[in-house]
Batch of 3 targets.
Target 1
Amino acid sequence: MFTGTIVNRLGYLVTPFLVFFLASRGVTGTETSYVLGALGAGNLIGPAVGGALADRVGRRPTMLIGLVGASAAQGALFLAPGVWTMAAASLLISTAGSMVPPASFALLADAVDGARRQRAYALLGWGVNIGGAVGGVLGGYLAARGYWLLFAVDAGTMLAFAAVVAAKVKPTTAPRSRANSGGYGVVLKDRLALLLLPLFGIQLFVYSLTEVALPMAIHDSGLSPAVFGSMAAVNAVMVVVLQPFATARLARFPQLRVQAVGSALIAAGVALTGLADGVTGYTMSVVVWSLGEVMVAGIAATVVANLAPSHARGRYQGAFSWTWGLARFAALTVGVAAYTTLGPATVWWTALAAGTATAAATLALKTRVDTRTAHAPAA
């Protein structure tokens, strides 16, 4: 899974450069928002479908459907003749692509015991960052030589990941249970999960502001796009270098305590963006929230996996992935709207307040989570 993740993320090229590709096809302004909106909508549909399929038909088939489907949709987007066909292809790309994480996370929960799950999930996150760091440079190089190369490499690495899954992942399904066909009712009836998922969602929203509000702040400071590229490089280097060591060292501490501290650091780092007016200030803010990102790696997914009954791991991870998709979509819409209409200070203060409040609320649920997970192995 780690190998396939790196291969796949090395080719994650089309989405980051989609706006530039659309502009090359004469799609700008409002028409661009239609395509990007469809891309965001797929990230809300795919996790729900992928989680349900992972429990119903198995982890491996769901991953193969998602990877092959997204690869085919890449070709459809490149060949699409108009805005609406581009929007439809974008919807298919994000829907199929976002089916994969719930199935892969459920697969890891099946294969790795509870004591080591965080390190497994953190390892996948580390692979995403390694592939993303290299892919960003590769994407810029290929885009200058033709956008078709972006689509070819992106689709090709998805098929390569699918080949790894087909060759190396054993066919598995969730344990047989009448609850396998009950949809997401099993998650909706879990009061503890319904308390935790919104908290994780708000924390993910605050983190997602680093993709949206940070470049806007850098632009407003009169700095060049290259500065944002440098900030992204600082984050990537810190995560790639520090995460393996931090995950191993922090494994001896209670997970939700680490999650709370890390989430508070992310909130503080995002808020510090509002005090920055130059490269040094922005670098300091990135360092702070990057340290928080390193600390929380894999914890939320692990907590969700530990809460899930074995027959519903796909749907629990689907609900978590849907929460992540919703948080990112909210950052791209609500976050941008708040920044442009209410002012940057509103965004920074809201991020600080929301991040620290949810960190405290998460920590307050520690006893209930510990009691629940302690009973699960015995059951």
Target 2
Amino acid sequence: MNYDVAVIGAGPAGSTIAFYLTLKGLSVCLIDKKRQIGYPLQCAGILSRHIVKLNDLPERLILNKVKGAFLHTDNYTLNVQKDYEAAYIIDRVAYDEYLFNRAIDNGANFINQKAINYDLDEGEVYLQNGEIIKSNVIVGCEGYNSLLSHHMGNTQSNFNASQILVKISKDTINKFRNSSKNNEDYVDTYLREDILPGFLWIIPIQDDLYRIGLFSNDSHKIQGSILNDFLNENFEYELIEKYKGFIPIFDEKNKLVDRRGVLIGDSAAQVKPTSGGGLLLAFDACRIACEHIYKAVDEEDINYLNKYQDEFLDKYLKEFKYQFKVHKTLNMLSNDDFDYLFKKLKENDCEELISTYGDMDNQSVIIKEFIKRGLIFKIIPKFLFKKVSKIFGF
């Protein structure tokens, strides 16, 4: 079976690149071992409003819209908000299904098999049933622990992530927030030294349902214990469902392109270092890769594929490096340091500043604003000045 492009993985990235390439008139197959696309859920399901610039999102798949956040340490809470809806809480399983059906409806051929090996020189995909798919380009969208990435010689590492779907009364949530308002359009994040460099989140869905989760270096078992303790200490709740997943860690030394192979999304670890979110990055990578894949096929020159890696890194590498600096800084802080940081943020009226300049897709914006205004020296514990200055180069 011969195709212009073989896409491995029918998740959101795979389905999106398959759709884009069929729009270009290329023959595309979409290979995935799953019988039910979208399962199991491995995502917090919150996307910034910029999603509408990068991909279709039907209104019916939006479960909630949020405009603010409560940011917590053990003893302090910051309240930040936008004047507009800043993010959407989505039905992630249904969204995966929507993107998959869109690709199939536009001409992509679905092959319900597991890819077990590749020949990147010949463009061959070996399936578990013994069949061989021949293509000009192989696009790896397999997600975490990508086999295609392994064939490229990449080193892959990850954080673990755990999440629980629970039912909690709004009064209980407001008590946790120390708020008398019924803020259904707010998310919560919690900074704790025992889960660094990750954090804990509370995401409101609808009808008293919340996704509560975290990512960290801990095992899923330890994360489960942390979540159970957190819930038992703070809420009366009804447990609905548990999920677990993996968040790949970006490494600029890894290849996005090798011979006839291309990586997109979690397979390429195209994930924000600070938040673990990657869907918007993956969609933009699909847009970038599509043009270069089309040229490589149309002009029968796979060297065009290398321009995808160049363009993606030109656009995002600087931001990634900045977010890794934030990681490095947070890793030095204890729970007492986080309390000190939040206390100083309140004393310096920084909630309004964060509300104005905070961007869930580009965290470097607010950090640069703190540095420019000299606030960074007012909020960081003094004994860390030299270390933080060295990390950020000021």
Target 3
Amino acid sequence: MHQTPTTFEVDGAAICTKRMQAGFEVTELAAVVGITASYLRKLERGARKHMRPGPYTRLRAALNATDDELLAPHRDTHTERK
């Protein structure tokens, strides 16, 4: 059975790029998503990296984006360090 993650690790630079492409100001997108402009700015800068499912889903819908576009790339924790 598939469970919704508790949080989504997002790619702030991708959010910023998609927001600008969509023509949203930070305050406009934050209002649509239901988060503060301050939180959105922190996400875009990388100061915050995780979003709860509700706001993340609204962000994805507002930007007409996919998970592949907005989620942070997964790092392989099993890769050997040299």
